[in-house]
Amino acid sequence: MALWAGAIGAVLFVLVFLADGWSRPDYASARHPISALALGRRGWIQTTNFVVSGSAITAGAVGVLLDGPSTLLGVVLTVFGLALVASGLFRMDPMLGYPPGAPAGIPEEHSAQHRLHDLAGAVVFLSLPLAVAIGAFTLPGTSWRIVSAGLAVALFVGFGWFGRAWEEVSPRLGLIQRAIVIPGWGWLAALFTARALGLGW
């Protein structure tokens, strides 16, 4: 059951931020980061998404930790899930023109809450590529290892790309972030599902 919760949590997270971002008239998915959805009148939707999906993924990670191919993989995935929850508990500051009336750029000074959100986000975007890399060495089956190795490289490169995009206030910031999140969370959902079904394990 915990593994199924993890799979559902990973898929749910992506579906919610895609649908919520698409349906907000003042929100630009290509420009604004996913975390900005936690701001404004409808911010509770993404906040809940962070907390619920992060908790479900943490449950799935504990399932991997107790009955998976690698204790280290389970530990790193647990850290990832908890950091996702923390990303919801601490919101980013308004910026990049969202919500309407927010500064057009990225302010030099940030609130304590934003700094904690940034810290949680850094853990999220470092722990998942690390988990995928561990999977490349520990998951059974050649296919799993090849896919995980390639994805790990892509995610680490993508994380660096997103960091540069943030510093440069790129108009494609949100698009770059989604190019990292969707395949990363997809791998996670596939991992939990395969483990729950006992496929290739």
TrEMBL record:
**Keyword DNA damage listed:** no
Give the transmembrane ranges: 6-23, 44-66, 72-90, 119-138, 144-163, 175-197
> Lineage in the entry?
Bacteria, Bacillati, Actinomycetota, Actinomycetes, Micromonosporales
Q: Which InterPro entries does this chain map to?
A: DUF998 (IPR009339)
The signal peptide stretch is none
- What protein name is recorded for this chain? DUF998 domain-containing protein
User: What keywords tag this UniProt record?
Assistant: Membrane, Transmembrane, Transmembrane helix
User: One matching Pfam family, short form?
Assistant: DUF998
